[in-house]
Design goal:
single chain; D-Maltodextrin-Binding Protein, domain 2; 2 domains; five-stranded mixed beta sheet; 10 strands
Length: about 325
């Protein structure tokens, strides 16, 4: 009798396992939320919404963008970090998360997320200055190295801070720093003559450069951007700085690899979609799919670079 019961138990267990496998949810089977940890309207939000539009076509489910602003992106990032790792809550942000940990704004290591891909390496980073005060980039550097007091507007633990720190270190300007998390406030402050320098993506500042209100001091990339080839790099000007802005998709820690693979398969198709490329071109960038391994390696390299400037980011130098 015991032998019969044991055989029946094994048979029932096998049937149960086969049923579970056969009825396991294919991913994705319901709508996905892409969380953007900053306000709507900026480059991060714009890129996320383009991706969401095309991803839902590839994945066959709705993909909604949710904005959760706060503390240089750490509030929204933590929400994703603590979310259920079922693949339905995804972070879209950039390398500010690395800087936030370095400067102590968060204890979350970016690489503890399940990184999916870095599909946008934005090579449009620039620093702008008021055209009323400075004639050109050379004039800015000369006066910064002299007695001119340069006031740079930053957001603590962000690309906006790192870019100014890199430039300050390279030209030995001895800048003063004021904190502001809003691009709109920085624009207003520069137009009002209250600040002399801030970081932005060139696409966001082009209208002010074209109108003669701001000057672009250069592009923080190794090569000129194909969309605005007349703007020189800092390296061309003898200032050895470069900083691309890395945008990535990430899942909560320990997300199953099959979920990541399914998502990345769809993301790769979006990055190769010619219509999607035209939408990104409006912001002077192009999507390029990087594998999970390539993306993790890129973020690791960026973290090593950023950590070299820890004292300056913490205001210790």
């Amino acid at each position: 009798m015991k032998k019969i019961v044991a055989v029946l138990s094994i048979a029932l267990l096998s049937v149960s396992m086969m049923w579970a496998q056969g009825n396991q949810e294919a991913y994705p089977s319901r709508d996905i939320t892409v969380l953007v940890p900053v306000k709507a309207g900026g480059d991060t939000d714009s890129y996320a919404r383009i991706f969401a539009q095309y991803l839902q076509n590839e994945l066959g489910v709705g993909v909604a963008v949710k904005n959760v602003d706060g503390a240089s992106g750490t509030v929204g990032s933590r929400e994703v970090f603590n979310a259920k790792n079922d693949g339905y809550t995804i972070l879209f942000f950039h390398g500010t998360t690395l800087l936030s940990q370095i400067t102590g704004l968060t204890d979350i290591d970016t690489l503890d997320f399940t990184i999916a891909s870095v599909p946008v390496v934005d090579k449009t980073a620039t620093l702008v200055a008021p055209a009323k005060k400075f004639r050109n980039a050379a004039d800015f550097v000369k006066r910064a190295q002299g007695d001119e007091k340069i006031i740079a507007s930053i957001a603590q633990g962000s690309y906006a801070q790192l870019a100014c720190v890199l430039y300050d270190d390279a030209v030995k300007g001895g800048f003063s720093y004021v904190d502001s998390t809003s691009a709109a406030d920085r624009i207003a402050d520069m137009l009002g003559g209250r600040i002399d320098l801030f970081f932005s993506q060139y696409g966001s500042m082009k209208q002010y450069v074209d109108s003669g209100d701001f000057i672009s001091l250069g592009v923080m990339s190794d090569e000129r951007n194909e969309f605005f080839p007349d703007v020189p790099t800092f390296k061309e000007q003898g200032i050895d700085i470069s900083m691309d802005k890395l945008f990535f998709f990430a899942f909560p820690p320990k997300t199953d690899q099959t979920i990541v693979d399914a998502f990345n398969s769809a993301l790769k198709k979006v990055c190769e979609n010619e219509t999607a490329k035209k939408d990104f071109a409006k912001y002077f960038v192009q999507p390029e799919f990087l594998t999970q391994a390539e993306s993790i390696a890129l973020l690791k390299d960026a973290k090593i670079l950023y950590e070299k400037f820890t004292p300056q980011l913490l205001g210790e130098n």
